[in-house]
Structure formats: structure tokens, C-alpha cells
Amino acid sequence: MSEVARRPAGLTAARWALAVLLGVNLLNYLDRQVLYSLLPLIQADLHISDARAGELASAFMIVYMLAAPPIGYWADRTGRRLWITLGVGFWSLATAASGLARTFAQLFGARAAVGIGESCYGSISPSFVAEHFEPRRRASVLAVFSMAIPVGSALGYVAGGMLGERFGWRAAFWLVGLPGLALAALSSTISEPRREGPRGETASAWSAYLGLFRIPSFTLVTLAGAAMTFCLGGFAVWMPSFFHRAWGLSVAQAGTLVGGVTVVAGFVGSMAGGWLADRLLPVTSKAYLWVSGTGLLLGLPLAVATVLARDLHLAVAALLAAEFFLFLNMGPLNAAIVAVTDLSRRSMAFAANILVIHALGDAVSPTIIGELSDRFGLAAALIASTAGLALAGGLCFWAMRHYDRDARYA
Asked: Is residue 84 part of a domain?
């Protein structure tokens, strides 16, 4: 019996869940990225180096990735809506609390606390959304959901730059954090998709997670995500500072520029990737991986060109094109994870994915890029990080060898 026949979802309930969680995902990335536009102001106020500034981004990511596996395990067994609601409320309060920080240590602790709340959401929401819709639409639906990554990030850049310059960096955290409490209340109204079939309650968390990494395509897609995230996470943190330093833009101008480029390229790229993957699915079952790998490889030289450009307009154009191709994978890679994992472990699959992609990716890359920047300059550090895109693209194509078999057994 098909998955849809076992778990039909009402269209109204499905659209409401997608709408609410899209809004939450926008806030998720807004609260996450707002720090990066504020870094020049924070560094000047707290007198910290690039390496220390990079640690603020790493604080969030380390806690986020470590909290995700236990939360994903319990959410698959106890229901996911409550975890989503609590997570949204907690990270919103933690973001607002960042504005109370008077020392580096206090700000470090507040950003780490944001990671706890967001792990309750990030490890659960992709499969929660996907299960409301039939498989043939999932790449497009998850592309809409993942559109919040570039759009929310862009809003974070713009809000951080404008609010920080006008009201100060502490007030900026309060203004973007507290509205999340309203979305936490809305999250409690979404329906839990019906999940029939074995839940695997007798399996220990350790054995259940190990079982996921025995799925070759899941492992390769996860490693591809880690390599991509190493580069993109570093660019997300340091690109506003790069335009601020290299081209003499103000904090607000740099945040608005990077945010504007990200929202346009990210929106179009995410939607195009989901649409293209779903349209190619009848042609090749490996469409999710083909679209993702091709986009990553096409985006690599354009990312390098962004840093090396000798004209501001060329740098912006290269960044726009690079982000378009790099965001093609947002829906397809998530749809691939859903396709190769069984119902009983989907939240766990995304939790494991979060742990690996951030442990090997943007939990460490902002600090590494900051260290390299202190030694060799920010441009050289950013270019070095783009090697991750070549590795990510290659891993997507490698995963194609195992995908059909893994999807049949899911």
C-alpha cells in the first residue's frame, strides 16, 4: 500500500501546517543570522577579534547539533508538535536575552541557548511538513519550506544592520526575538500527520541512529550537506563583514546588500530546485541528487569570483549567481532524506543530519575562517572554504549509485 494511502492528510490541514511552519522557519533563520550583521558593532563594543567573533556563531551551532539527536529520538516516540512549540518559544526568549549581554561570556551563553530551542524545531519540522503531502510533491513543498533559509537569512542581515545601526546591537536582539512568542502559540494549532506502521519503540537510541548510517545514500547526502554547510556557513557569517571591509560599506549597507542578494537568489534558487527536481522525477528517480550536485558544482567558481572581483557590481552579480545555484538543493536534498528513511526514524534522520552537517560544517567553519582571516586576510580565508562545494557536489553524484535501492527498502 502506498504511503499516501496509509497516511492521507487533509489539504486544509496540510496547507495550514506548511504556512505556520514556513513562518516559523523564517523566524528561525532571522534569529540565527541577525548576529552576523551585528558583528562589527559587537566587536567594537566588546573589543573582540575575528576569531572570538567566530566563536559566537560556533556556540550556537555546537549546542544545536548536540541537542538535536536526543530530541529527534524522543519526538519520534512522543509526538512532535509539542516539541516544536516549546522550541520556538525557548529560542525566541534566548534571542531576546542576547540583548541583555554585557560581556562576551554572557553573549556566548545566550547564543548557545538559542541552539537548544532551534534544535527542537530543526530536527522535527522537515519530516513533519513532508508527511502532510504526497511523495511526488515533496521536493516542491520542501523547497517552499526551505525558502525560509535564504529569505529569513536575508531578513536577519537587513534587520540586524538597520536596527543595529539605529538602536544599537542589544535592542536589535530584543526586537527580532520577542515576536517569536506569537508564532510559538500558532505552532500549537497545527495537526500532527498520521503515522501508521512500526515505530521501532524497542530499539535503543544508539542502535537506531547507527542503523541510519548503514543507509549509504543517507550517509553520503549527509556528508555532502556537511561539506556544503562548511562553506555556506562561513560565507553567511563573514560576507557582511567582507563587503564592509573590502568595499567600505556601512554596517547597514553591507547587511542590506547581502540580505537583498540572498533573498532574491535564495528564493528563486530554492523554488527552481524543487520545481526542477519534481519535474525530472518521472525521467530519473535520481533527480533530487542530480539537481543538487549540479547546482553545487556550478556555484563554486561563482563563489570564488565574488571574493576576487575588482568591481563592486561584479562582486554582487557573482554572489547573486552563486547563491542561485547553491540554493537549488534546499528542497531536493531534504526530499532525498525523506525518501530513503522509514517512518519510524524520520525525525531521527534529520536530527542525525543536523549533528553531522553542523559538527563538520558551520560549527567550526566560522572560527576557522576567523583564524585564517587574522593570519592571511578575510578574502583568502573565504576562498579556501569553497573547497567544500566541490566535495559536496561529488558526494551527491556518488550517492546516486545507492539511491534507488535505499529508497525501495525505506
From this structure: yes
Q: Which of 15, 111, 22, 5 is nearest to 63 (CA)?
A: 111
Q: What share of the chain is helix, strand, coil (3-state, %, to 5)?
A: 80, 0, 20
Residue 275 sits in which domain range?
9-190+204-409
- Give the C-alpha separation, 310 to 33, whole Å: 27
Structural domain contains residue 199: no
C-alpha cell at 229: 554547510
Q: Mean pLDDT, 10 residues at a time, over the chain (410 residues)? A: 38 82 87 84 88 80 84 79 89 90 91 87 82 79 82 81 87 88 89 59 70 94 95 87 90 83 88 92 94 97 96 96 94 91 83 87 85 92 95 97 90
Q: Give the total number of structural domains in the chain.
A: 1
Does the predicted TM-score (pTM) go above 0.85?
no
Whose CA is closest to 153, among 259, 234, 21?
A: 259
Here the CATH number for the domain that contains residue 294 is: 1.20.1250.20
Specify if 1 maps to a domain: no
Backbone CA torsion sign across 393, 395, 396, 400: positive
- Between helix 346-359 and helix 50-78 the angle, nearest 10°, is 170
Residue 387 in any domain: the answer is yes
Distance CA 332, CA 290 (A): 9
Give the separation between CA 304 and CA 382, rounded to whole angstroms. 8
C-alpha cell at 402: 545507492
Does residue 212 contact residue 218 with C-beta atoms inside 8 Å?
Answer: yes
